[in-house]
Amino acid sequence: MKNKNTWDDLKLKKLEDLWSQGHPISKIGEMLGVSRNSVAGKAHRMGLAKRTSPISSEKKQSVTGIKDNEISDKIIPLKIKLREVQWSRTKCCWPEGDPKQNDFKFCGQEIFPGRPYCDKHSLLAYTNTRENS
After folding, report:
1. Number of domains, the chain
2. What φ, ψ does residue 99 adopt, rounded to 5°?
């Protein structure tokens, strides 16, 4: 079986040019007659600049110029903001407010024994169907 080298000097130069122009990897593969994976692998081995994923390429915003805890909702993703929310197994974990806002918190009152909520929120969370009929 004959081993055909897919990447000759001309294709390598075209790859480098198309890559620097910012063409999508799949499009480069179509233009060069090779697979997307072949383009990605060759670009990596050539040391070409890395690309950000089109799926996860949300525009990142700079946090410079903002003092201490004055970071706005637009900058910090929800999963990061929720790390700062204080909660405890011995305190009511009834959510209060919008989790996407900086003022989100949990109730924090002492829990009703055996439940994750205080008396007030336990009445809201746990209903008896016999009482409602």
Report:
1. 2
2. -60, -20
Q: What is the pLDDT of residues 1-45, one digit of tens each?
A: 455 667 999 999 999 999 999 898 999 999 999 999 999 999 999
For 87, the domain range is: 78-132
- Segment 53-62, tens digit of pLDDT: 665 544 444 4
Confirm whether 123 is domain-assigned. Answer: yes
**Residue 24 to residue 51: CA distance in whole angstroms:** 9
- Identify whether 51 is part of a domain: no
Q: Full-prediction pTM beyond 0.85? A: no
Residue 66: inside a domain: no
d(CA 93, CA 87): 7
